[in-house]
Specification:
The complex is a heterodimer of chains A (306) and B (295). Chain A is an alpha/beta fold and 306 residues long. Chain A is 37% helix and 28% strand. In chain A, the strands form three sheets. A six-stranded mixed β-sheet of chain A has the order 6-7-8-3-9-10, with helices on both faces. In chain A, a hairpin with a 2-residue loop joins strand 9 and strand 10. The longest helix of chain A is centred in the middle third of the chain and has 16 residues. Chain A is globular and about 70 Å long. By secondary structure, chain B is an all-alpha fold. Helix content of chain B is 73%, strand content 0%. Chain B has eleven helices and no strands. The chains are: A alpha/beta (306), B mainly alpha (295). At the A-B interface, helix 2, strand 6, helix 3 and helix 4 of A face helix 1 and helix 5 of B.
């Protein structure tokens, strides 16, 4: 599979003190890629360099096989960008704004109108799109921001913290939408987040950076396969549950009434259910481990290859 | 066998890729210019955005209409003022228009950070700045030319000298173009550095009226004391009188504001200052947007 984004020894310094990116080598394949890092890890800086808006201090980067230093304009024709911050004027309707921005991407007026209507519908804005953006909820504004990134049918979209400020339901919907963009629309996605857990659900590939350095880059499947961690909490007799699961061949670790076990397939859930039912005890919690990918990175050596 | 009927379902026709043309930088620049020009008159925006520009346009045209009426009905043998001096005579209205509409053109994009979406597209800072300048200049040109057309039509209907009035009108149009470019540059440069719209409006009004006032005072005092040369140079203090000075030199009009450029070198110096002023404003705008991209 060809790489959509390739950076080599990419470094960005602001003045002498602040290093936003340090010697970063990243390859982003087709599909949905999560770019994970704490706030200030260098995600937004990387995106601005990839759009050709910010010159790198040293090193190089190519997007869609175009050089960010010299072919930024061409890159911006083929890439969509959704910024992290608010960027919508309140006094225009979503339709007017997205039509205008489609034209700013080079679409003729009629095509811009048609694409804007289609795209707004795809992100889930229907009648609302004729109302001024100022009255929208955060979720609706995020959808407008997403629509303007997609309206010119880019080959790649860069989404900077698209779930920021959303409630859990809005977050889920946004993540579903991102997955849809990558699969149904066939547009590759780079999506940043400071939350590891939410990205593993929608990404094919995850890149983790910290302090401007690459921590890890790997396909999500290889990571989750290793770390199908389930947390089970029971009301009592944790030791008996542990014994039954261990007897059935499940790798399990116990702390009081909380058990951590490794999921082999959905049968593991059945084993838990049967154990709890047979012992006649209460099941408090049955939950996929949320932090496990992050734990893995904590143990992984810096710059480890996938 | 019954088939369950879907009532009012919107069928998802799936995602369609765009295969049509993607037009280049020239189209994008043109679209942005037209969009901004319309914006300068509140077209394509909410109704309340149209109120101020059209009220001002009315304020600009009504005096011309009255003059035209007087000429037609009263049977004067020439217009009571030169076409080139109309903009200066209605300097207050002109200033308010520049002050009210320049922030519309640039502050909005900056304040709501819409510029991030522009610059993520195949549009350069230079294209953005030039399109905004062109749009604001065109808006001002229209704003200044409309009353001149009314005057000219009035003059023709009043059967004034056709040749004199045609030449005068064309000079007025040329002057309007100069006023438009210079004032648009000054207005946008100030507006871009004052992202809050209200502050932008106040800043532009203040700068233009203050400079105009200082220029008039210096010129007046100098004239009192018999220093006519200094009185002439005082015109360089204010953008409006700079353009007026260029008109005096290039279009052979009489100075409408202050004494007018002195001596042989006065005219060319005023023209040079006008060009330098526009260039400086352009560079200021470019700097402003460089800061935005790097942020």
């Amino acid at each position: 599979m060809p790489s959509l984004v390739v950076t080599e020894s990419l470094t960005k310094r602001y003045g002498a003190r602040v290093t936003a990116l340090a010697d970063l080598d990243v390859e982003v394949p087709e599909g949905v890629t999560g770019l994970v890092g704490a706030n200030g890890a260098g995600k937004s800086t990387l995106i601005k360099i990839l759009l050709g808006l910010l010159p790198a201090t040293s090193g190089s980067a190519r997007v869609l096989d175009l050089d960010v230093a010299t072919q930024g304009q061409r890159i911006r024709e083929l890439v969509g960008y959704m910024p992290e911050h608010d960027c919508l004027p309140p006094d225009v309707t979503a339709t007017e704004l997205v039509v205008h921005l489609a034209r700013m991407s080079g679409l003729p007026t009629n095509a811009a109108r048609e694409r804007a209507a289609d795209t707004l519908r795809h992100v889930g804005l229907f009648e609302e799109r004729y109302r001024p953006v100022g009255g929208y909820s955060t979720g609706m504004k995020q959808r407008v921001k997403l629509a303007q990134a997609l309206v010119h049918d880019p080959q790649l979209v860069l989404l900077d913290e698209p779930t920021n400020g959303l409630d859990p339901a809005g977050r889920d919907e946004m993540l579903r939408l991102i997955r849809r963009i990558g699969t149904v629309f066939g547009i590759s996605v780079v999506v940043t987040s400071h939350l590891m857990g939410e990205l593993e659900r929608v990404c094919d590939h995850v890149v983790v950076i910290d302090g401007g350095r690459l921590m890890r880059s790997a396909a999500t499947s290889t990571m989750t396969a290793l770390t199908q961690d389930v947390v089970v909490e029971v009301t009592e007799r944790g030791a008996d549950v542990e014994a039954r699961l261990a007897a059935a061949g499940v790798a399990v670790r116990r702390q009081g009434e909380v058990l951590h076990l490794v999921l082999t397939d959905d049968g593991t859930y059945d084993l838990v259910r049967d154990a709890v039912a047979d012992l006649g005890i209460g099941l408090v919690r049955l939950q996929r481990g949320r932090q496990h990918m992050l734990d893995m990175f904590r143990d992984a050596p810096v710059g480890a290859a996938p | 066998m019954t088939v369950p009927r879907e009532t009012g379902a919107i069928h998802d026709i799936g995602y369609r890729h765009y295969t049509g043309p993607r037009l280049g930088a020239a189209y994008i620049a043109r679209s942005l210019t037209v969009h901004s020009l319309r914006g300068a008159f509140g077209l394509g925006r909410a109704t309340r955005s149209k109120v101020v520009p059209f009220l001002l346009l009315a304020a600009m045209v009504v005096p011309a209409f009255v003059i035209a009426l007087v000429v037609v009905l009263g049977g004067a043998d020439e217009l009571p003022l030169e076409y080139t001096s109309y903009a200066v005579r209605l300097g207050a209205v002109l200033t308010i228009f520049v002050a009210a509409q320049s922030p519309q053109a640039v502050s909005r994009d900056l304040r709501f950070r819409l510029v991030a979406l522009y610059f993520a597209r195949p549009i350069s800072r230079a294209t953005y700045v030039r399109s905004k300048l062109l749009a604001m200049s065109a808006a001002l040109f229209g704003f200044l030319t409309a009353p001149l057309v009314v005057l000219y039509v009035g003059a023709l209907l009043g059967e004034l000298d056709v040749w004199d009035n045609t030449v005068g009108f064309l000079k007025g149009v040329a002057g309007a173009a100069m006023f438009a470019v210079v004032l648009a540059s000054v207005g946008l440069a100030i507006a871009a550095w004052t992202p809050r719209r209200g502050i932008g409006v106040a800043a532009i009004v203040t700068v233009l009226t203050l400079l105009g006032g200082i220029s008039a005072i210096v010129s007046g005092v100098a004239e009192e004391q018999g220093q006519d040369t200094l009185a002439g140079w005082a015109g360089l203090i204010s953008p409006v009188s700079i353009v007026d000075g260029v008109q005096v030199w290039l279009l052979d009009s009489s100075a409408a504001v202050v004494a007018g450029p002195p001596g042989t070198w006065g005219g060319p110096v005023f023209a040079l200052v006008a060009v330098a002023l526009v260039a400086a404003c352009y560079l200021l705008l470019m700097r402003r947007y460089r800061a935005v991209t790097d942020a």
